[in-house]
Design goal:
By secondary structure, the chain is an alpha+beta fold. The protein is 26% helix and 41% strand.
């Protein structure tokens, strides 16, 4: 029993010495404090947002480089939109699934990529352009498709069964 107690005492001394050495090699950084402020969105920005996205909810506003970014839900899809200080819409991005695709886009993809399921859809509207990014999947591959003006472009292909 005496042997066991002295072994524990030696072990405890070694561990405390190691801990002291380890702590001595590190600097303590000052604490980081995050504060929240209420963002006042200009009336013109708010009105244009309400007109563009009637029925949007769970809005969160951010000011970025003198522009206003809003994150919100609309029609069961996550969305982001960026507005200038004067209320002009810069871009709108909608994140969703096959259900956010129009029937003609959905049918074209199903025709051109028979056997693939549409897993994700991202709709990007900017400066009178509409671009879709689609993730398609079959039993062997994942495809990332860019679709603009009805023309699909394969950006990336991943084999699910390498070898």
């Amino acid at each position: 029993m005496k042997y066991l107690t002295s072994t524990w005492l030696i072990l405890l001394c070694c561990v405390s010495h190691l801990i002291a050495q380890d702590a001595a090699g590190y600097k303590n950084l000052p604490p980081v404090t995050v504060t929240a402020t209420t963002l006042k969105v200009p009336e013109k920005v708010w009105n244009n947002f309400s007109n563009y996205f009637n029925g949007a909810f769970v809005t969160k506003w951010y000011e970025i480089n003198k522009k206003y970014l809003v994150k919100f839900m609309l029609d069961e899809s996550e969305n982001k939109a960026l507005f200038t200080r004067r209320g002009a819409l810069v871009y709108h991005i909608s994140y969703g699934f096959e259900n956010i695709l129009s029937d003609d886009i959905r049918n074209a993809i199903k025709r051109d990529y028979a056997g693939y399921e549409i897993r994700k859809a991202i709709k990007i509207s900017e400066d009178h352009r509409l671009v879709w990014l689609l993730t398609l999947e079959d039993s062997n591959r994942l495809l990332l498709i860019r679709l603009e003006d009805g023309v699909p472009e394969e950006l990336e292909e991943l084999n699910k069964n390498p070898g």
